[in-house]
Amino acid sequence: MAKSGYPAHCDSRAEKFFTDIRWNDSRRMWDTKHPDLVSTPNVNINGTVHCIFCGNEMKSIQAGLRGFVRNSVDPYAVTGKSCICKKAMDWLEFQEKKKKLRAEHDEKVQALEQEYDHFFVNEKAITRLAKKAMESKYFRDGVLQYSYGESEE
User: Fold this and answer.
1) Does residue 149 surpass a pLDDT of 90?
2) Dihedral of the alpha carbons of 133, 134, 135, 140, in degrees to the nearest 10
3) CA 60 to chain centre
4) DSSP letter string over 35-81?
5) What is the pLDDT of residues 46-91, one digit of tens each?
6) Which of 91, 93, 102, 121 is most buried by a 10 A CB count?
């Protein structure tokens, strides 16, 4: 259950995307330009974007738009849609963990490749072998002619 001032379906992890406003009463407002906002899975029904997890209407994202610059993109342009429900926050957490695991995997693969770099092609050896092949009596018309031990009768 959401705290006072937050929408009913708001997960506690989504509270950081709201800002306190103190006009007529103490309320919280969706911060469309929060730098950590990311689009979550959605479906567009008749022009209204809904969360695929809870069915609620999505919140707009304007992240990356840090103010009006003359002759630039519309400072009020929507750059994505996000939901604040538990499953949407779980999905975002899943995406972050997946990104972290992929980065760790890439680092380990790179370390393994460096450890076993002697398995990779040695350009000097290939060049030397190619030169030797071209000098061979079996090299004709740009093709190395060879046999697998068959007799040439």
Assistant:
1) no
2) 110
3) 20
4) TT-----EEEETTEEEETTT-PBPEEE-TT--S--TTSS-TT---EE
5) 999 999 999 999 999 986 655 555 555 666 788 899 999 999 999 9
6) 91
How far apart CA 128 and CA 84 sit, in angstroms, is 63
Phi, psi of 10 (to 5 degrees): -75, 125
Reported as half-sphere exposure (CB side, CA atoms, 13 A), residue 31 has a value of 16
Q: For residue 4, which amino acid is it?
A: S
Q: What is the gyration radius of the CA atoms in the chain, in angstroms?
A: 30
Rounded to an integer, what distance in angstroms lies between the CA atom of residue 84 and that of residue 11? Answer: 6
Residue 16, amino acid: K
7 has a pLDDT exceeding 50:
yes
Could you give the CA distance from residue 79 to residue 59 in angstroms, rounded to a whole number? 11
Nearest 5°: the CA angle 149, 151, 153 is 160
Tokens read off for 37: 């906002």
Q: How many helices (H) and strands (E) does the chain have?
A: 2, 8
- pLDDT confidence of residue 153: 47
Question: Would you give the DSSP letter of residue 2?
Answer: P
